[in-house]
Amino acid sequence: VSESRSLSIIVLGATGDLAKKKTFPALFNLYHQGFLNPDEVHIFGYARTKLSDQELRDKIRRYLVDEKNASEKAETLSKFLQLIKYVSGPYDSEDGFKRLDKAISEHEISKKSSQGSSRRLFYLALPPSVYPPVCKMIKECCTNKSDVGGWTRIVVEKPFGKDLESAEQLSSQIGGLFDETQIYRIDHYLGKELVQNMLVLRFANRFFLPLWNRDNIANVQIVFREDFGTEGRGGYFDEYGIIRDIIQNHLLQVLCLVAMEKPISLKPEHIRDEKVKVLQSVIPIKDKEVVLGQYEGYRDDPTVPNDSNTPTFATTILRIDNERWEGVPFILKAGKAMGSKKADIRIQFKDVPGDIFKCQKQGRNEFVIRLQPSEAMYMKLTVKQPGLEMQTVQSELDLSYKQRYQDVSIPEAYERLILDTIKGDQQHFVRRDELKAAWEIFTPLLHRIEKGEVKSIPYKPGSRGPTEADQLLEKAGYLQTHGY
Ligand code: BG6
């Protein structure tokens, strides 16, 4: 990061939930760890509510530190808060954005930015309906056209549209204003440690190279569960549902990294090219390979219609029609109000041919990558039960990050991704054609759900979801192992 330039980070939607819970805390942690240079950086909040700088600082303060580390971080916290300025205004008026531009420019001048170059990072912590007007205002009022060597980057959050058509429309609107290299579509799962580890694991280990295909792998499961419901977000959630909220983006991105071919290099474009190919090879989802659920009590939320069919749980099987994966089911499963909070990838291997130990009923080889909580990777394998008898037992080779990397604290996904945006690295962001291909996979199913052609089955909060989902897994060839 160059020393003589200014960096302005502008959080639009500064008083909203995402900004308070994710964006500002990530910025503070980066600052605390020295990744944001206090001589360069300034942070601006923009939203409709009228507030003073101090009122915004007071609003977000409690999200930045917890009681445990408050005193240790007190000094950096107060310095960080002093960097934050607030501008209020509507999302579609020149007046507000001109005032914002003025505030940013004053900061840039105060930093005596050499050669007039300025770096402006606009983080849209906003609903997608306002992306187009906001991007237009940024372009018209807040970009310095004569600036050489500076940049303007736009970070947008999901949901990027509701289906293929609306997503494409949104992409064209934003794409008409900013170049693809300026648009950073965040999927925060791509910032998680073990998701980022996926390419290393697959392509830097001889173990896996020859095994990672249809000859050896029986099925792949990518699972997300949360042990709480849609509390306080019923209105948003009912419009989107679990497929748009989790599967079409987070789990599908993970699937890409599990299934893609080796990129020719680590350049962001090479990696994203391979991800697109995977998405384009997915064949249309069949209704008989889908189980939807809705937890009992979901409709008690006053913002949710009484007859809502919106799924809060879904299991869908995706099939990739290429040489490596034909015939291997990729099971994507996500649910709210489940018995536990967990996200993992489970690669289940085929049975050993000619099993002389007759041990396969005990379970297959399985490689599990636990994304959260407690990051870990473990391999389930069959060993001899220690002792005089020749008995076999399923055991584990276990790499638990807490034990192995005791002194390393694992960064929050948002911290990493914001830092990538400042560096201009788009590897962990979703490209426009990726987004399109992702919507192509799910749009027909989503439309059938909306027409009521695929129904959500009720399930008890705290359960594993509808039993039909386990039956579907079994039909797809997943062999249930003990305790899972
Ligand atoms: C968000 C979804 O994208 O991801 C939420 O909108 C969900 O519904 C969240 O709770 C889960 O993120 P994480 O990082 O806690 O697994």
UniProtKB/TrEMBL annotation:
Gene3D superfamilies: Dihydrodipicolinate Reductase, domain 2, NAD(P)-binding Rossmann-like Domain. It comes from the Eukaryota. Pfam families: G6PD_C, G6PD_N. Residues 10-197 form the Glucose-6-phosphate dehydrogenase NAD-binding domain. GO terms for molecular function: glucose-6-phosphate dehydrogenase activity; NADP binding. It catalyses: D-glucose 6-phosphate + NADP(+) = 6-phospho-D-glucono-1,5-lactone + NADPH + H(+). Its EC number is 1.1.1.49. It is found in: Cytoplasm. Pathway: Carbohydrate degradation; pentose phosphate pathway; D-ribulose 5-phosphate from D-glucose 6-phosphate (oxidative stage): step 1/3. Keywords: Carbohydrate metabolism, Cytoplasm, Glucose metabolism, NADP, Oxidoreductase. The keyword NADP applies. Its main location: cytoplasm. Residues 199-478 form the Glucose-6-phosphate dehydrogenase C-terminal domain. GO terms for cellular component: cytosol. One of its GO terms (biological process) is glucose metabolic process. It is an enzyme of class 1 (oxidoreductase). Catalyzes the rate-limiting step of the oxidative pentose-phosphate pathway, which represents a route for the dissimilation of carbohydrates besides glycolysis. The main function of this enzyme is to provide reducing power (NADPH) and pentose phosphates for fatty acid and nucleic acid synthesis which are involved in membrane synthesis and cell division. Belongs to the glucose-6-phosphate dehydrogenase family. HAMAP family: G6PD (MF_00966). This is Glucose-6-phosphate 1-dehydrogenase. The lineage of its organism: Eukaryota, Viridiplantae, Streptophyta, Embryophyta, Tracheophyta.
